[in-house]
């Protein structure tokens, strides 16, 4: 496998369409929704602390993940991990963890807490390994993580 690099996406790369098609074959619509929201300017991941990151290998996008202010809460210090998707052939090699950790690092200055919704048993296990705790009775979330401030 080619080495993986993580970078902030300021535009959707040409290979984004392949990632979206793969996600749909897996039964997920959220990558196409990400593209629609991006192109309509509804969500460009451009508010303080927000990021859209891509993992690239061999010039191709192999994974994506975003961090927004949590739209379910009226609290600017709560972020939300969204739209994390890794191509099937790149799963279980650490690419998803690289993206999520980079999102958390980027969000430390703007957010105190990060929430998300894990839709599958696999994603539940994945986020638990990264330190997210299950939450009960929180609108729009299944997991949350308190962020410690950056030491920089």
Summarize the structure.
By secondary structure, the protein is of the alpha+beta class.
**Proportion of beta-strand residues:** 25-35%
Strand order of the largest sheet: 1-2-3-4-5-7-6
Total beta-strand segments: 7
Radius of gyration: 15 Å
Helical segment count: 4
Q: What do you see in this structure?
A:
The protein has 152 residues and is an alpha+beta fold. Helix content is 28%, strand content 26%. The longest helix is centred in the middle third of the chain and has 13 residues, at 95-107.
Could you name the key traits of this structure?
152 residues, 7-stranded mixed beta sheet, 7 strands, alpha+beta
Strand and helix layout:
Blueprint: E1 5-8, H1 16-25, H2 30-39, E2 51-57, E3 60-69, E4 78-86, H3 95-107, E5 113-116, H4 121-129, E6 133-134, E7 143-146
Helix pairs in contact: 1-2
């Amino acid at each position: 496998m080619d080495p993986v690099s993580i970078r902030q996406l300021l535009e959707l790369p040409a290979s984004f369409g392949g990632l979206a098609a793969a996600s749909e074959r897996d039964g997920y619509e959220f990558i196409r929704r990400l593209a629609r929201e991006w192109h309509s300017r509804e969500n460009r991941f451009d508010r303080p602390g927000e990021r859209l990151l891509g993992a690239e290998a061999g010039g191709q996008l192999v994974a994506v993940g975003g961090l927004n202010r949590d739209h379910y809460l009226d609290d600017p210090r709560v972020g939300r991990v969204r739209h994390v998707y890794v191509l099937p052939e790149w799963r279980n090699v650490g690419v998803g963890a690289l993206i999520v950790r980079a999102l958390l690092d980027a969000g430390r200055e703007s957010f105190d807490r990060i929430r998300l919704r894990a839709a599958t048993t696999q994603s539940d296990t994945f986020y638990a390994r990264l330190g997210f705790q299950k939450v009960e009775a929180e609108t729009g979330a299944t997991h949350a993580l308190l962020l410690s401030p950056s030491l920089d």
